[in-house]
Structures are given as structure tokens and as C-alpha cells.
């Protein structure tokens, strides 16, 4: 059954109880998408109209970009691939972001990367020329700690598969993590199934961990066999993109391994989970309709924006491409339409002339 997504109106011409297995006659008509016929698993045909309410994927520049910026109070930036790549700022990004602030916009930074504390992000932002304070940064190390302390009201320790930054953020909110660093294998399978556990652990938290290993996977499984033990993940990004098309496995790979072993699904705090936006929205009283999410990934940044009713702007300096956005748009699939950005620019540097013009 097709589920109505925000921003779309779905009119069913008859009751449909079975999930469609094939769609026919999809057509993009300007800014509207119509799905004319659906074939169900029992062979039955049904027709419905699926109307996209607004134009999407618009290339913006000049006055139109200025108009968009005038219509929002807050701008949320993803970091990697949007304002910097690795250790280098995207050309013109710092000037554009700083000018936005001078124009009275609230500027916040939302990143799925769990390897830095808020303090570490501010160091990097300032080093690369961005004006920022710790309170402006919402990374998954910080948001996971907030989730466990304020949302889950955890009383107990956390078994942490993660970074030193995550350890620090947990301690900042009064939660004691265990399990940091390498966990070398010893003994045999019987020993592994009876591995020593800390009786005060009440949650397993998975983020990026360069020391991830079989023993850590096993230890997480043993904790998560207790259904009362919370299971939280920072993000599901499968790869960390590097320069020149290179990539390394991301946190999503580690999380999938733990989920598979534990036969449970983690609660995710990072994009596209609404929690990360809510974390910032609660702190600053953000109005979703007057907030713009700027990102380079369709499946995290843009989907977060769609999930939370924000305006979305894709930059082409990172992971996702214009062709991928268009493919989602033309698919007619409601699940994929959430990954179609409202607007597109080549780079955040294009905000600068729009703001100056
Ligand atoms: Mg990014």
C-alpha cells in the first residue's frame, strides 16, 4: 500500500489492500507526476492519481536564490561535501556562510560524522574560516549523548562501539561508556558466548569505530540479548567518501553487522532521522517552514528535510548527483520522492553573489 508522504496528495480511486508489484504509465508532466495504473500481486489492476504538489529539483541562481534565502529564518548545513571536503573548505563557502549570519540568518551545522565532539567541530570550522560556536553544531556524537540522557533517560552505562569523541560527549552528559579501544579475540566459541559483561550496561551505542572487531560484535550481541538493553546507532551512511572517488566503509556497515547479530534494529539519531532536526529545533525554536536544509546527500540530508517539512537545497560538491535526483523525481515512487530536493545549486559559494546582489 502506498503511504501518503508529506507534500504529496494521493487520491485512490478504489480500496487497495495489497501492495503494488508493478506500476505502469508513470509520467512526469512538468512539475507533476501521475501514476496511472498499478498492478497488484493478485493481478488486479487499479488506477490512482499521484500528484506532486510543488515544483522540485529547480536550479537556482541570482534573484531566485535570493528570494529563497529571504523566505527562511534558519539555514542548516551538512558539513562534508557541502562546506568542506576533508581538511579543505569548499571555495567561497566560508564567505557565504558568514554573510548569511551577517544578514541575520540563524546558521547551524548538522553532521552525521560521529568522530568529533562539538568542541572539535568548532575548532575545525574556525580553522577553515567559518564563524561558529559550539551551540551551533549538531553532530551525531553529541546528539546520541543527548538522546540517551534526555530522551531515553538512561540510568546506567553504555557499551560503546565508537570514537573518543563519542566517549567524551557521553561523559559530558554524565553517562559512563565502556568498551573503548581494541578488543582482541581470545578463547573459543563457548568462551565468546560467555564473555564477561558489565552488569551496569543498559544500552549499546554504535558509531564509527576504527577498532571494530569480531569480539566487539560478539559483546554487543551478548548485551542486546537482553530486550531491556537499548540499541542506538549514530547513522547508517554506508561509505565515507574521500577525494578522487576513493571511499572507506562507514558506520552503516558496522551497524548492519550488529543489527544482524542481535536480530534487532537500532534507533538512529542521525540524518535522515527526525531526532537530529528536533534536537536543533527544540534548542532554537526552529519553524520548519522557515528553515532550509543544505546538503550533498539525497538519502540523508535531503530526506531529513523532507521528513521534517523543511525546504531543501542540494549542492553538487559532494556525494549525490543531479542525475540521481532526477531519477528519484521521475520514478514516481513516493518513497523516493522524499529524496528529491526542492532546489539545486552547484556549490554553496553561489549563495554569496545572491546575498550581495
Ligand atoms: Mg555530506
Write up this protein.
The protein has 357 residues and is an alpha/beta fold. The protein has three domains: 8-52, no CATH class; 58-112 and 288-356, Rossmann fold (3-Layer(aba) Sandwich), CATH 3.40.50; 142-268, HAD superfamily/HAD-like (Rossmann fold, 3-Layer(aba) Sandwich), CATH 3.40.50.1000. It is 34% helix and 24% strand. The chain contains 13 helices and 23 strands. The protein has helices spanning 62-70, 93-102, 118-127, 140-151, 164-172, 189-193, 214-224, 251-262, 274-284, 298-308, 322-331, 334-337, 351-356, and strands at 8-12, 20-24, 27-29, 32-34, 37-40, 45-46, 48-52, 58-59, 74-77, 84-85, 88-89, 106-111, 137-139, 157-161, 177-178, 201-206, 230-233, 239-241, 247-249, 267-268, 291-295, 311-315, 343-345. The protein has a seven-stranded parallel β-sheet with strand order 8-23-22-21-9-12-13, with helices on both faces. Strands 15-14-16-17-20 form a five-stranded parallel β-sheet. Helix 10 links the parallel strand 21 and strand 22. Helix 4 runs parallel beside helix 5 (164-172). The chain starts with 7 loop residues before the first strand and ends with a helix. The model is unreliable at 1-36 and 47-53 (pLDDT under 50). The chain binds magnesium ion (MG).
Amino acid at each position: 500500500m502506498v503511504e501518503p508522504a508529506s507534500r504529496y496528495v494521493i487520491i485512490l480511486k478504489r480500496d487497495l489492500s495489497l501492495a503494488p508489484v508493478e506500476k505502469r504509465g508513470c509520467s512526469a508532466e512538468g512539475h507533476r507526476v501521475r501514476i496511472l495504473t498499478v498492478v497488484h500481486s493478485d493481478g488486479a489492476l487499479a488506477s490512482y492519481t499521484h500528484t506532486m504538489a510543488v515544483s522540485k529539483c529547480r536550479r537556482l541562481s541570482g534573484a531566485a536564490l535570493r528570494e529563497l534565502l529571504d523566505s527562511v529564518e534558519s539555514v542548516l548545513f551538512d558539513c562534508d561535501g557541502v562546506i568542506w571536503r576533508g581538511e579543505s573548505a569548499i571555495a567561497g563557502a566560508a564567505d557565504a556562510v558568514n554573510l548569511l549570519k551577517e544578514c541575520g540568518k540563524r546558521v547551524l551545522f548538522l553532521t552525521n560524522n560521529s568522530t568529533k565532539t562539538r568542541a572539535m567541530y568548532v575548532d575545525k570550522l574556525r580553522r577553515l574560516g567559518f564563524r561558529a560556536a559550539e551551540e551551533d553544531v549538531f553532530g551525531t556524537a553529541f546528539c546520541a549523548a543527548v538522546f540517551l540522557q534526555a530522551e531515553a533517560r538512561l540510568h546506567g552505562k553504555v557499551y560503546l562501539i565508537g570514537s573518543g569523541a563519542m566517549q567524551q560527549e557521553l561523559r559530558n552528559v554524565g553517562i559512563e561508556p565502556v568498551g573503548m579501544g581494541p578488543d582482541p579475540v581470545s578463547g573459543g566459541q563457548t568462551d565468546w558466548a560467555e564473555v564477561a559483561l558489565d552488569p551496569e550496561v543498559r544500552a549499546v551505542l554504535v558509531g564509527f569505530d576504527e577498532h571494530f572487531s569480531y569480539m566487539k560484535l560478539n559483546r554487543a550481541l551478548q548485551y542486546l540479548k537482553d530486550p531491556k538493553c537499548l540499541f542506538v546507532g549514530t547513522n547508517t551512511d554506508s561509505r565515507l567518501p574521500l577525494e578522487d572517488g576513493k571511499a572507506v566503509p562507514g558506520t552503516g556497515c558496522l551497524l548492519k553487522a550488529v543489527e544482524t547479530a542481535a536480530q534487532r534494529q537500532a534507533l538512529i539519531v542521525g540524518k535522515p532521522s527526525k531526532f537530529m532536526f528536533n534536537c536543533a529545533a527544540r534548542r532554537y525554536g526552529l519553524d520548519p517552514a522557515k528553515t532550509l536544509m543544505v546538503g550533498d546527500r539525497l538519502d540523508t540530508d535531503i530526506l531529513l528535510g523532507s521528513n521534517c517539512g523543511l525546504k531543501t537545497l542540494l549542492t553538487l560538491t559532494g556525494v549525490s548527483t543531479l542525475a540521481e535526483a532526477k531519477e528519484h523525481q521521475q520514478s514516481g515512487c513516493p518513497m523516493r520522492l522524499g529524496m528529491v530536493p526542492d532546489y539545486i545549486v552547484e556549490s554553496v559559494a553561489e549563495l554569496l553573489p545572491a546575498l550581495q546582489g
